[in-house]
Amino acid sequence: MRRLNSRFRGKSRRTDVLSFPVASAKGLAGDIAISLDIAERNARLLGHPVADEIRILILHGILHLAGYDHETDKGEMAKKEIVLRRRLGLPTSLIERTREATRKTSARSGRTMARSSI
Questions:
Q1: Domain residue spans in the chain?
Q2: What is the pLDDT of residues 4-49, one digit of tens each?
Q3: Distances (CA, A) of 81 to 5, 19, 60
Q4: Which H helix or E strand runs over 53?
Q5: How much of the chain is helix, strand and coil, in % rounded to 5?
Q6: How far apart are CA 93 and CA 86, in angstroms?
Q7: Mean pLDDT comparison of 31-35, 88-92, 104-108, highest-scoring range
Q8: Cα-Cα-Cα-Cα dihedral sign, residues 81, 68, 32, 98
Q9: Mean of per-residue pLDDT scores for the chain
Q10: Phi and psi (nearest 5°) for 17?
Q11: pLDDT at 88 over 50
Q12: Comparing 101 with 13, which gets the higher pLDDT?
């Protein structure tokens, strides 16, 4: 995952999920790569089954394949992910987790942030 993230996103660090849209193939959305190591660790830390964590990562990846981008869409992907997560009965989504972690970190440092970047 580190190599894929570096090659395709220019970020030399591991990541939990990557999406690779297919622009020209009819009926195909693209591919999703998931780090099982990170999924297992997150599931353990968050107290839910690994299968649920993988479903959360798949949902996140599918939203990217559908054209959503939480880094630039002013919360549109986050809203969609929350609605779908709840409908599917899944635990907290990636975007929700990251925002909560950012809030906790900001509170400890005495800073207030309106939005987190994921």
A1: 2-109
A2: 999 999 999 999 999 999 877 677 889 999 999 999 999 998 889 9
A3: 22, 15, 7
A4: helix 50-65
A5: 55, 10, 35
A6: 9
A7: 31-35
A8: negative
A9: 84
A10: -150, 140
A11: yes
A12: 13
Burial class (CB in 10 A: 0-12, 13-18, 19+), 83: exposed
Distance in angstroms (rounded) separating the CA atoms of residues 100 and 31: 28
Polymer length in residues for the chain: 118
Q: What is the mean pLDDT of residues 91-115?
A: 61
Q: Where are the beta strands (DSSP E) in the chain?
A: 17-21, 30-34
Q: What's the pLDDT score for residue 102? A: 64
Strand 30-34 versus strand 17-21 pairing type = antiparallel
Sign (positive/negative) of CA torsion 65, 13, 105, 49? Answer: positive
Q: Give me 110's structure tokens.
A: 């005495």
- For residue 15, the Cα-to-chain-centroid distance in whole angstroms is 9
Angstrom distance (rounded) from CA 101 to CA 82? 16
Q: Is domain 2-109 in CATH 3.40.309.10, yes or no?
A: no
